[in-house]
Structure formats: C-alpha cells, structure tokens
Amino acid sequence: MSSESNYVIAIDGPSAAGKSSISRYIAAKKGFNYLDTGSMYRAIAFYLKENGVSPTEVDKIVVALKDIDITFHPGENGNDIYLNSVNVSGKIRNTEIAEIASRISAYPDVRKFLLEKQRSIIKQGKNILEGRDTTTVVAPEANLKVYLTAENTVRANRRWQELVAAGSDISEQEVLESINSRDERDTTRKESPLKIHPDAVVIDTTYLSFNEVAEKILDNLPE
C-alpha cells in the first residue's frame, strides 16, 4: 500500500479507547487526511432512524443503501461527514445512533458498502484512519497499524464524560453496559470481528496521558 503519494496509518481498537481524538491529533500534526470509519456507520444509522427503518429490518437496510451517499469535507476539527450533501457531524454522536450503528455493522452488505468507499478514499494521499477493523480488513497493509485499548470501566468513564459535556443525562452505568454490549457484538460477529492484527503496535491507554499515547504512536512511525 505504501508509495511516495500513498501512506496509511490505521488505528484500531474497541469503543472509547481514544482512537478518534488521537487520530485527529496525529493527522493534524503530520498533515494527513483523517478518516473516521465509525462515523460512516453512524451516518447510515442516522439515515435509517430518520426514515423509520429498524436496525433489524435487514432487507430494507440493503435497499436503503442505494439512496445513501457519504462524503467527507474539511471542518473545524478535521473532516466533517456529510450524508446526502448534508453535514451530520453534530447529529450522530449520541448513544442511540451508536447503538444502531453497532447493530447494523454486523451486516455483510453494510460492511461491503462502506469498505469499498473506505478503500477508495485511502488509495491516494496520506491518510490516518480509525475504526474497529481498519488494521485487519480496511488497510491490512498500512504503513503503521496501531491497536488502542483500555480497561472497560475507564473507557466507559471517558465516554460518559464526553456525553455529559454534550448535554446528555445518561448515567455512567448505562454507558458501561452499552460499551460491554458493543464489545461483545464487535468481537463475536461473523463479519470482520474486532481483533488484533499480528503486526499491530498494541497500546493500553488505561494509565497513559494523551501525550504519552501520541508519543508512542509517533515513535513507531516508519521512516
């Protein structure tokens, strides 16, 4: 995958391990494009919710994919995600959309639909992408593969603080239960389960500061 015009850093790992914030930081520091693969699943989830399609109605979801166009455009905090030419970046960061996204991510047709888009985006330029199968499926030949993880209670607390800061009244216990459920689905699904690539640099962020995590990734960048 590597060439003079093509360079990829793939960051994988479970929910709330710090993938998004660290990926945006590295992208900005190195001048890379930033691709949040998880937001693409959330965009589809948002579309389904807005159009009254249940996450259990697989046939309807497959049909709906034909009416979905997802693109990225520069925003204040990296790339904003657009659904059918509408910026939905601020509408997909809540527990309901996350739950729907987690459920539909198990469907082969949904994953194939987004995989084609993801691989097309990273064919040119320098990219940092993050998600739950970026190192094993989307970009297994990435120049650097990183797997971020942390204890589930720590991840739950981080996500809970984010949601509260955004105005949510959800409890920390509810967030923990949601994360545990998503971990179970992500690691046991038949289609592209979450797992550690044998060549990935594994970083446990439980007791590390943001800067310490960033340094570890930057120190592992190939020349």
Task: Explain the layout of strands and helices.
Elements: E1 6-12, H1 19-30, E2 33-36, H2 37-50, H3 58-64, E3 70-75, E4 78-83, E5 86-87, H4 95-104, H5 108-121, E6 125-130, H6 134-138, E7 144-149, H7 152-165, H8 172-188, E8 201-204, H9 210-219
Parallel strand pairs: 1-6, 1-7, 2-6, 7-8
Antiparallel strand pairs: 3-4, 4-5
Helix pairs in contact: 2-4, 4-8, 7-8
Q: How many structural domains are formed by the residues?
A: 1
What is the number of helices?
9
Strand order of the largest sheet: 2-6-1-7-8
Strand count, sense and barrel status of the largest sheet are: 5 strands, parallel
Order of helices and strands: EHEHHEEEHHEHEHHEH
CATH fold-level topology: Rossmann fold
- Tell me the strand percentage band: 15-25%
Outline, from the CA principal axes?
Answer: globular
Give the class from helix and strand content and strand pairing: alpha/beta
Compute the number of strand runs: 8
Summarize model confidence as the mean pLDDT: 91
Instruction: Give the quaternary arrangement of the chains.
Output: single chain
- CATH class bucket: Alpha Beta
> Which bin fits the share of residues in helices?
40-55%
Low-confidence parts, pLDDT < 50 over ≥5 residues?
Answer: none
- Examine the secondary-structure arrangement and name the CATH architecture: 3-Layer(aba) Sandwich
Structure description:
The protein has 223 residues and is α/β, with parallel strands linked by helices. It has a single domain, classed as Rossmann fold, CATH 3.40.50.300. Helices cover 46% and strands 18% of the residues. The chain contains nine helices and eight strands. The protein has helices at residues 19-30, 37-50, 58-64, 95-104, 108-121, 134-138, 152-165, 172-188, 210-219, and strands spanning 6-12, 33-36, 70-75, 78-83, 86-87, 125-130, 144-149, 201-204. A five-stranded parallel β-sheet has the order 2-6-1-7-8. Strands 3-4-5 form a three-stranded antiparallel β-sheet. Helix 2 packs across helix 4 (95-104), helix 4 (95-104) runs parallel beside helix 8 (172-188) and helix 7 packs across helix 8. The chain starts with 5 loop residues before the first strand and ends with a helix. The mean pLDDT is 91.
